[in-house]
């Protein structure tokens, strides 16, 4: 299933009148504030969010899984699905692979397919949180932290393999997320677990190609429920600092304890030059991996506000200097529709945060004018930027309304016809 340029043009014809009106109103508002609309649109249009290969099918929970039809049955089909999302929104131009779920057997052919869809390969992800059928030693009691050196060696070798797969595809980062930890008090010697993990990470770090980054992802809980060996940003930052310049912390929005101030965390990590990657999702309770922005859109805006402030202060490029990725799971929605909604929510929050009057905010902060600080932030947050985002997408050749076009074209039905109604994508 491919989205044709004429489908996009046809939708544009139908919707352009309404869009033009909304955009003209938006432009007027921005002009009044002396904001350069074209520069803004350029920034929004340049922003790309990677799609993880494991989010293209239904995930399920430990209680059950209700697979939908037409899910991708191979790595090639996963890439095609991301290509389709990208054709619709022109903002999903990268895919992040999980090894061994997505082993690229013929890297050349896989790369060519991605190129033809204008996609690049984002960070590659290792997996030492499950035992694979052909695996010699078990990760039941951890991988890089394991008390048995031979288990650690097996996990290190896997991570080095993942780097090699990534290299062949033109990826330039590895994300290490560990489920290592303990579920009961006394089960682990914390210092030994940390030290073993650090030494294992050092070996993996030593195998990084020169331009590569290593992202150390933290998570406060699950699958271990008493301690996680990379449990919070402090632990991740410790590893990243000890490892060296190529190691960074990765923030996944769902991996914090309830009510954590994630915007403050990203501000400080950026200040230290140690924020490397970002996983978007939303949650009400913890790691629920729901559609981005569906529960706490204001928090997402506040995070973007800090990201922009911190990146600009360091002269960082918004599009290329951090790894942006969606990390969600899909239980009741069509995964592709959910991903379209997620990318849209990210672009909206990004656009709103770009609107913050930073000079005025700084002045209000310096004069302890708390009321104005809030007014300035909420003025930006309460701006309806949907026409701006749609205009950016249109200028890039995408659809004015990607989700509507996905439905109007009955994409899911075509995929079911192509792939069958009983498909189970590999992954979570
Ligand atoms: C773990 O909850 C996580 O968010 C990590 O990012 C993994 O890479 C991803 O899920 C899929 O395994
Ligand atoms: Mn994640
Ligand atoms: Mn997660």
Short description:
With 428 residues, the protein is an alpha/beta fold. It contains 15 helices and eleven strands.
Describe the overall structure.
InterPro entries: L-rhamnose_isomerase, Xyl_isomerase-like_sf, Xyl_isomerase-like_TIM-brl. Residues 104-289 form the Xylose isomerase-like TIM barrel domain. One of its GO terms (molecular function) is isomerase activity. This is Sugar isomerase. With 428 residues, the chain is α/β, with parallel strands linked by helices. It has a single domain, classed as TIM Barrel, CATH 3.20.20.150. Helices cover 48% and strands 9% of the residues. The protein has 15 helices and eleven strands. A six-stranded parallel sheet has the order 4-5-7-9-10-11. Strands 1-2-3 form a three-stranded parallel sheet, covered by helices on one side. It has a two-stranded antiparallel ribbon with strand order 6-8. Strand 2 (94-96), helix 4 and strand 3 form a beta-alpha-beta unit. Helix 1 (5-32) packs across helix 13, helix 5 (149-169) runs parallel beside helix 6 and helix 8 runs parallel beside helix 9 (297-313). The model has no long low-confidence stretch (mean pLDDT 96). Bound molecules: alpha-D-psicofuranose and manganese (II) ion (2 copies). Residues 252, 254-255, 287, 289, 327 line the site of one manganese (II) ion (MN).
């Amino acid at each position: 299933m491919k989205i044709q340029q004429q489908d996009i043009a046809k939708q544009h014809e139908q919707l352009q009148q309404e869009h033009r009106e909304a955009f003209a109103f938006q432009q007027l508002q921005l002009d009044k504030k002396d904001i350069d609309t074209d520069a803004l649109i350029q920034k929004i249009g340049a922003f790309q969010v990677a799609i993880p290969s494991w989010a293209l099918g239904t995930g399920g929970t430990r209680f059950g899984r209700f697979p939908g039809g037409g899910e991708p049955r191979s790595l090639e089909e996963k890439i095609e699905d991301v290509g389709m999302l990208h054709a619709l929104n022109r903002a999903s131009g990268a895919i992040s692979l999980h090894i061994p779920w997505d082993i690229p057997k013929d890297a050349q052919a896989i790369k060519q397919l991605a190129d033809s869809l204008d996609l690049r390969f984002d960070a590659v992800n290792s997996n030492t949180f499950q035992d694979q059928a052909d695996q010699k030693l078990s990760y039941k009691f951890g991988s890089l932290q394991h008390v048995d050196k031979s288990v650690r060696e097996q996990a290190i070798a896997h991570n080095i393999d993942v780097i090699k797969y990534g290299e062949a595809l033109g990826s330039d980062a590895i994300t290490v997320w560990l489920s290592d930890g303990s579920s009961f008090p006394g089960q682990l010697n914390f210092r030994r677990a940390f030290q073993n993990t650090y030494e294992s990470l050092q070996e993996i770090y030593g195998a990084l190609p020169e331009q590569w980054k290593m992202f150390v992802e933290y998570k406060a809980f699950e699958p271990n429920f008493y301690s996680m060996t990379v449990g919070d940003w402090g632990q991740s930052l410790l590893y990243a600092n000890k490892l060296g310049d190529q190691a960074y912390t990765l923030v996944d929005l769902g991996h914090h304890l309830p009510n954590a101030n994630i915007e403050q965390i990203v501000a400080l990590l950026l200040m230290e030059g140690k924020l490397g990657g970002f996983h978007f999702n939303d949650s009400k309770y913890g790691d629920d991996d729901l559609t981005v922005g569906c529960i706490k859109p204001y928090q997402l805006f506040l995070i973007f506000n800090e990201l922009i402030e911190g990146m600009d202060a360091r002269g960082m490029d918004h599009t290329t200097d951090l790894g942006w990725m969606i990390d969600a799971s899909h239980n009741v929605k069509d995964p592709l529709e959910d991903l379209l909604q997620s990318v849209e929510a990210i672009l909206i929050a990004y656009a709103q945060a770009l609107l913050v009057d930073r000079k005025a905010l700084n002045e209000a902060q310096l004069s302890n004018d708390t009321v104005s600080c809030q007014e300035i932030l909420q003025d930006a947050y309460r701006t309806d930027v949907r026409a701006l985002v749609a205009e950016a997408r249109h200028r890039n050749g995408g659809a004015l309304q990607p989700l509507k076009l996905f439905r109007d074209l009955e994409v899911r039905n075509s995929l079911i016809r192509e792939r069958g109604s009983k498909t189970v994508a590999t992954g979570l």
